[in-house]
Design goal:
The N and C termini lie far apart (38 Å). The longest helix is centred in the C-terminal third of the chain and has 19 residues. 34% of the residues are buried. Helix 5 packs across helix 8 and helix 6 packs across helix 8. The chain has eight helices and six strands. Helix content is 43%, strand content 12%.
Length: 221
């Protein structure tokens, strides 16, 4: 069989992908990132991997286009690792969608967590709530407008303080600052989503909608 240059490039990309995954620790990293962003420190602790070895594995995965490392929008000294899902569309990633209540948490409970809870309930028919570590006085008008554009109503929503996670089947932090302020339990998920209120633009809120939609679909599909 004669391969064209373009096909050879595709084969090389596939070979890099399979090569990057041909190691148990790296597969464990991919599984861990399937539904949650994690800091390198969290990955090392959760997987029992030495930090220098983890750095090597992350570099290999990043070179293959499987993960992306980025700076926290909370504590700028921290970094997070995110799975790049597109190269893995042909692989079966673990599903951890809970059957009970989901609690979404951000700092002010005025945009991201409110949108996440509303979208979760709308898309799954399952119960969801939201809370903030430092709740604002009201839900951001940009979040209300963004929700309305996809047929959801946040008109009666009000920010509330996170007092307890008791009775919740899954906690998802959707803000770096809240994630870093709290002491997440091992089964919590983290979605590193920039605060749309920083710019207040329509596009920033619509980007949050798009990001949350992908995350929710990935978790429940």
């Amino acid at each position: 069989m004669i391969y064209s240059f373009a096909m050879n490039e595709a084969l090389e990309a596939r070979a890099r992908l399979h090569g990057a995954l041909a190691e148990p620790h790296r597969l464990a990293i991919i599984d861990e990132l399937a539904h949650s962003d994690r800091s390198p420190k969290e990955l090392a602790e959760r997987l029992g991997i030495a930090t220098n070895l983890l750095a090597h594995h992350l570099e290999t995965l990043e070179s293959a286009g499987l993960v992306r490392r980025f700076v926290s929008s909370g504590d700028r000294r921290r970094r997070y690792v995110r799975l790049e899902r597109q190269p893995l569309e042909s692989l079966d990633l673990p599903t951890t969608a809970p059957a009970g209540t989901v609690l979404f948490v951000c700092t002010h409970n005025s945009a991201r967590s409110q949108l996440a809870a509303a979208m979760w309930t709308h898309r799954t028919g399952r119960s969801a709530t939201s809370a903030g570590t430092h709740p604002a006085d009201h839900v951001h008008p940009g979040a209300v407008a963004a929700a309305k554009r996809i047929g959801l109503d946040l008109g009666d929503a009000a920010p509330r303080r996170l007092d307890s996670t008791d009775g919740t089947d899954l906690v998802v932090t959707v803000c770096d600052r809240a994630h870093e302020e709290l002491s997440p339990l091992p089964d919590w998920l983290h979605w590193s989503i920039p605060d749309p209120a920083a710019s207040g633009s329509r596009s920033a809120f619509d980007q949050v909608i798009a990001d949350l939609g992908r995350r929710i679909d990935d978790l429940v599909s």
